Amino acid sequence: MKKSILTIAMIIATALTMSAQSSVSVKKFQNEGKDNLYRGTEKTSTAEGDLNKDGINDLVILENVSGDFSDKTTAYFAIYWGSADGVYKLYKTFQLDSLARNVNVSITTKGVLRMAAETTYDYVDDDGESGFYEEYNLVYMLRYQDSEFCLIGGSVHYHWERVPDLGCMSHHISYNTLTNKAVRSNYPNCDYDHPEKETVDIKKLPLMKITEFKIGQPIFDRFDFLK
């Protein structure tokens, strides 16, 4: 009899514990935004930091989802505002067009949202043995202002090589849309130890919202950023 009572007590205690954990989970994410994101994703990236400058950490969740074709990808993106009572409150979800298979998010110490994306292309000639390889590594820096996330700068690293070992070229551009300046680094024959650097003026752009560009696509191509 005592064993039965003890067993029942343990079951009740376990149920109460599970219920409490469930309540904490629900409380932490008020207006459960994760239900608005795609489920069964290939990769999820998260970051915490103060985006809206209220002194409390906020939360970013990004999920990369591949489409039916190799060049079709969607990034599902959610922003939660943090609060003094520890509850994350959903601000907004975004469905972003993407050319990149791999997108990661982070938040700088100054509260700037950093999105890093990688896009690669392989081209094989008819002989099946030669071709060329192309890679973009892109960074987008976004600041929260006027209730929007707007692009304030970033970088593009481009690498191209002809295979087998028939040539290589690479360059890197870091740009700031607030100062309208960019630093361009060229790497002749992909010699990364001896870059050729120059600071250039770039065209003044209107502030671009996060939904106004495609992730994995350079904001500037190789030449049109110059004044």
Main sheet? Answer: 7 strands, antiparallel
Decide which structural class fits the backbone. Answer: mainly beta
State the share of residues found in helices, binned by percent. 10-25%
Biggest sheet: strand arrangement: 6-7-8-9-10-11-12
The H/E string reads: HEEEEEEEEEEEE
Distance between the termini: 87 Å
- What is the CA-atom radius of gyration, in angstroms? 23 Å
Q: What is the count of DSSP helices, taking H or I runs of 4+ residues? A: 1
What's the pLDDT, averaged over the residues?
Answer: 75
Number of domains: 2
Spatial shape: globular
The beta-strand count equals 12
- Percentage of β-strand residues: over 45%
Uncertain ranges: 5-36
Question: How would you describe this structure to a colleague?
Answer:
The structure is a single chain. The chain is mostly beta strands and about 230 residues long. The chain contains one helix and twelve strands; from the N terminus they run αββββββββββββ. Strand 6 and strand 7 form a beta hairpin.
Give keywords:
single chain; 227 residues; mainly beta; 5-stranded mixed beta sheet; 12 strands; globular
Quick overview of this protein structure:
With 227 residues, the protein is mainly β. Helices cover 12% and strands 48% of the residues.
Write the layout of secondary structure elements.
Elements: H1 2-28, E1 29-30, E2 43-49, E3 58-66, E4 73-81, E5 88-98, E6 102-107, E7 113-124, E8 131-145, E9 148-163, E10 167-176, E11 181-187, E12 196-201
Parallel strand pairs: 1-5
Antiparallel strand pairs: 2-3, 3-4, 4-5, 6-7, 7-8, 8-9, 9-10, 10-11, 11-12
